[in-house]
Specification:
Largest sheet: 3 strands, antiparallel
Shape: elongated
CATH class of the largest domain: Mainly Alpha
Strand content: 15-25%
CATH topology of the largest domain: Arc Repressor Mutant, subunit A
Number of domains: 2
Strand order of the largest sheet: 1-2-3
Number of strands: 11
């Protein structure tokens, strides 16, 4: 139940100014996540790192509820939107230890490398690996693409023992030489 006193009202055990969400002095975890466009888990991580300032706990309907001051949330939002903010990626030095940050000077090279990888991932049938013609071990989908036979035909040949294959993980893996021998028999 909300109580009003002048320009203030109380909701969920907290006093707020009347008006928009930006007028509130504190925000709950869900509101912070929405305001920063991040997940609630990331809000918890930033809070444990101390980047959201001091966390206040109130009594909620189901137990303790964390609330964050709007000034600290606004400061973190500016920090996250800063173009000079380093990207979080694992980076190793010669000793094997990493800082987890990529310096702003290396950012352009890193983004270019990611774009090149994304283009490679969009290739039809290739993904990040070698092309089908270069593979030694094939999946069932690769074998279908090479032989123009249906999956059903290849599965039946595997079950009948005409085509050698193994189940590795969740799918069949076929040696290239076995597939060539099977195709020569057709």
């Amino acid at each position: 139940m909300n109580r009003r006193v002048g320009r203030l009202y109380m909701a969920r055990g907290l006093w707020y100014k009347r008006g928009t969400m930006d007028d509130k002095k504190t925000l709950d975890k869900k509101a912070v996540a929405s305001h920063l466009s991040i997940t609630k888990r990331q809000v918890e991580t930033y809070a444990s790192q101390g980047r959201l300032g001091e966390v206040t706990y109130i009594r909620g309907r189901t137990g303790r509820q964390a609330v964050y001051h709007t000034s600290e949330v606004a400061r973190l939002k500016l920090e996250l939107e800063s173009p000079d903010r380093p990207l979080m990626m694992p980076r190793r030095d010669a000793a094997g230890a990493g800082s987890g940050l990529i310096a702003p000077a290396d950012r352009e090279r890193f983004i270019a490398a990611l774009e090149a990888l994304a283009k490679g991932a969009n290739r039809r049938g290739g993904g990040f690996g070698a092309s089908i013609s270069e593979k030694i071990i094939l999946t069932l989908n690769d074998a279908v693409a090479l032989t123009s036979l249906s999956k059903l035909t290849l599965r039946e040949a595997i079950k009948a023992g005409k085509l050698k294959a193994r189940i590795i993980g969740r799918g069949y893996k076929i040696k290239r030489s076995d597939l060539d021998a099977f195709a020569a028999e057709l």
